[in-house]
Amino acid sequence: MARKLTAEELRPTVDPASLGIRTTQDAQPVEGIIAQPRATAALQFGLDIRQPGFNVFVAGVAGTGRLTAVRSFLEERSKTEPRPDDWCYVHNFKDPYQPRALRLRAGQGREFAADMRLLIERIRQEIPRVFESDQYAARRDAIAQEFNRRREQLITRFGERAQQAGFLLQATEFGFVLLPMMGGQPLSDQAFLALPEPVRESIRQRREMLEAELKEVLKEIRRLEREAHEQLHQLDRTAVLQAVGGLFEDLIEKYQDNEGVVAYLKEVQEDIIQNWQVFRSPPQVPPVPMAPPGVPPGMPFAPALLPFRKYEVNVLVDNSETVGAPVVIEDNPTYQNLFGRIEREPQYGVLYTDQMMIHPGSLHRANGGYLVVPVEELLVNPFAWPSLKRALQTGLIDIEDLTEKIGFIAVKTLHPEPIPLNVKVVLIGTPLIYQLLYLLDEDFGELFKVKAEFDTLINRDESAHRLYTSFLCMLTNKENLKPLDASGVAKVIEYGSRLAEDQQRLSTRFGLIADVVREAHFQAERDGSQYITTDHVRKALDFKVYRSNLIEERVREMIARNVLLVDTEGEKVGQVNGLSVVMLGDYAFGRPSRITATISLGREGVVDIEREARLGGPIHTKGVLILSGYLAAKYAQDKPLSLAARLVFEQSYSMVEGDSASAAELFALLSAIAGVPLKQSIAVTGSVNQRGEIQAIGGVNEKVEGFFDVCRVKGLTGNQGVIIPEANVQHLVLRDDVVEAVRQGKFHIWAIRTVDEGIEILTGMPAGERGPDGKYPEGTLNYLVDKRLAEMARALQTFGREEREAPKKAEEAEKEAVPADQPPEPPAETG
């Protein structure tokens, strides 16, 4: 049975006295995640389980406080967890293009870097002191003197032998030469050629023998040089080792528990021993070349010109001041922000980089803790999502140069040693993105096995009222806003019901609630009020609507001026006011539209003009097709449905979607068939199934308010109203002015369960039920519909039979006009 709703059924109210507070200052602020027990349990589980792949996806719509709640939850949890280790990058002496990663206890990274700087400074002092000492000079001179003595000894002995053989050993700038002598004097070339041939031959043979001996002597001298050089080298190594050995021993002893650091220190020591020359005297810095155009002169020199740069330690992650496990919120998850970057500096036409130019990403900073990433931003950044998946699969943070990755420049660059990854990744996104990733990305389900879904609704009871009060207390304290009095809190709770679109629920979209409170604070400040009251909240809500409803006002104006045709008085056959919702970003409003139906003989059934014009969506098309099922089930059990009907939203120039107008379309169709007019003062919303049951729809508040506003513009008569599904009564949270109009009898809202209940309100005549004889009682609307459909079926049948028999009758008439045995007459002559 249809029923007219009372004003008390149209909006839930909150008695300020029932809240038990005078202002929000009397309440306790809420902590942690608010009103999300399911999400909290899932998040707790995902963080507790340590097996790989159990990362968390927090799903929820915007405004439910996902990020704030997750941050608060993680920060509180992380305080009791251990600090992760520090990570440093150092020069790799075996492969300079692959810097080594060193792991140290939390706080040791900064200390180790300082120790290395101090070590190099002391070595720069100690090595020159050793090489400038008298002891080192004496040992070096002794080695040189011994070499010279043995060299001179070899040369002298050979020179004596050469003299005995008639040759003079002479040193030149190109080496030693043997000159033949005669009479104690060297022979000139002319004198040598003047000698008899047997004498010259004898001299040549002796020279060849001596030259062979000279080669052996020179070979022995070179061996002595190598020996002396090795002795000097060993002397230098010993001197350097004596200078730095103790320094390294102290550091090795300090970090003896860290094998990686000990191995690195030994490599540094060996490199310094091999390259001690750079420490012997202050480095000679070449003069600054002329700066290129656009570059200021006097720029600092490149690290490549600093010989001690390779001994510096790059503290990539410093957890010395971290309390508990790190919690990193990466709002801009680009590849470089996640994985770090390798910088370069242009120097004299080339790009230079080293281990000190490696910068960490949020994965490095969150390693050993938690990383929170908004998934929408993650997916739109190139390389970010695939690289994050690979890092979680391999358990390594691999810093790749992005320019090399995309092939932007073809130069050799650094490939730092990957760092082991131990992090819980928490992605934050909408349920839709979660579903899409789960369906389209085969890796997603393996890497994010825990879903923590934030609900948008909570049950509306006293505990929910207290929760809202505690939230408002926390918000006003945190942001230094004016406190709300009890009436203001009650109004905010009522707004929570409006957001939920449910009399028995409250919204958990606390971001939207907080925005209203901030705007109400502004209104209270402007009024000079000490507290935020219900009037301030109402002003904030009204002004929020005013900022967004320009198009709504223009639509109402067009209806008032009859540019858009909507009747709110009188009766029309085959015409009804349907209701739709127009979405404008964060604002939605209801708009009445004229729906008309026409009928004719035919077998096409119900035709959706919106669909034929490609302006109807699939759900709307489904709703129209259901009408044919309803008509066939109710009226075509004893006759064929011989009907061609057209349904259309008049003056609709955009896409029509949804089935919430199917009940209104059916009413217009029944009116057109029966020839009974419908009241234009009543609008209809609701969907219908094939059994004639009226089903719930969305946006009921906007639709009712939209028709009320149009009626108010065109003039309230006291007969106007809206028919809604009975199932939507619980969703009514109407504006105060609509509720007041209903209370005063100026506007009405009816709730129906069936088509028959609605058609009785619209026509004022009974719908009628089929009797035992299968007939509807006379004087009912269903009787008229059934009668008209029967007449149309007979008419179509008769028309079809006459159409089929017409050719046969014409043929018979022709045969009767001309006998078969009589020849035709000749044609008449014309003068």
Kindly summarize this structure in a few lines.
The chain has about 850 residues and is an alpha/beta fold. It folds into four domains: about 15-30 and about 455-545, Helicase, Ruva Protein, domain 3 (Orthogonal Bundle), CATH 1.10.8; about 35-85 and about 320-455, 3-Layer(aba) Sandwich (Rossmann fold); about 130-185 and about 195-280, Up-down Bundle (Four Helix Bundle (Hemerythrin (Met), subunit A)), CATH 1.20.120; about 565-785, 2-Layer Sandwich (Ribosomal Protein S5, domain 2). It has 27 helices and 31 strands.
Description:
It is a single chain. The chain has 831 residues and is of the alpha/beta class. The protein has 4 domains: 15-31 and 457-547, Helicase, Ruva Protein, domain 3, CATH 1.10.8; 36-84 and 322-454, P-loop containing nucleotide triphosphate hydrolases (Rossmann fold, 3-Layer(aba) Sandwich); 128-187 and 194-280, Up-down Bundle (Four Helix Bundle (Hemerythrin (Met), subunit A)), CATH 1.20.120; 564-787, Ribosomal Protein S5, domain 2, CATH 3.30.230. Helices cover 47% and strands 16% of the residues. The protein has 27 helices and 31 strands. The protein has an 8-stranded mixed sheet, with helices on both faces. Strand 6 (175-182) and strand 7 (185-186) form a beta hairpin. Helix 4 packs antiparallel against helix 6 (197-254), helix 20 crosses helix 24 (700-714) and helix 23 packs across helix 26 (755-763). Residues 283-305 and 826-831 have low confidence and may be disordered.
> Largest sheet at a glance?
8 strands, mixed
The tally of strands reads 31
Computed CA radius of gyration, to the nearest angstrom: 49 Å
Low-confidence stretches: 283-305, 826-831
Q: Kindly, what is the distance between the CA atoms of the first and last residues, rounded to a whole number of angstroms?
A: 86 Å
Based on secondary structure, the structural category is: alpha/beta
Strand content: 15-25%
Number of helices: 27
